[in-house]
Specification:
By secondary structure, the chain is α+β, with helices and mostly antiparallel strands. It is built from four helices and nine strands, in the order E-E-E-H-E-E-E-E-E-H-H-E-H. The two termini are 14 Å apart.
Length: 126
């Protein structure tokens, strides 16, 4: 199980790669393994400002459809258009090429509520 040390994580299995007040968000290696083969991603929130824990899109796998939630409040700036034609990128490379959205973080203090790699590993092994 790949859990990069440089990222922040949520209990809902999203990750954030933070650069100042910008962040890329995707789903974790654990989440993509649990979902199975990903067949469709839908994000219709580009340009919107969403609250923490608000759904920013859905991810569809062969087994199920799940919402993806904002780890922190912010504006959705960009959707990874590569996922429109090849959503399975998330299965192969969830932390790099498989990012889902780029956001501008509204409240940097909310980052303190996220999990580090060690805490996330404890969560999924519990």
């Amino acid at each position: 199980m790949n859990i990069p040390e440089n990222l922040k994580y949520t209990k809902d299995h999203e990750w954030l790669n933070i650069d100042g007040d910008l962040a890329f968000i995707g789903i974790t290696d654990y989440a993509q393994q649990e979902l199975g083969d990903i067949v469709f991603i839908e994000v219709e929130t580009v340009g919107e400002t969403l609250d923490k824990d608000e759904a920013f899109g859905t991810i569809e796998a062969v087994k199920t459809v799940s919402d993806m939630f904002m780890p922190v409040s912010g504006e959705v700036l960009e959707y990874n258009e590569e996922l429109s034609s090849t959503p399975e990128i998330i299965n192969k490379d969830p932390y790099d090429l498989g990012w889902v959205v780029k956001i501008r973080i509204a409240d940097l203090a909310e980052l303190d509520e996220l999990l580090d790699a060690a805490q996330y590993k404890e969560l999924i092994e519990a």
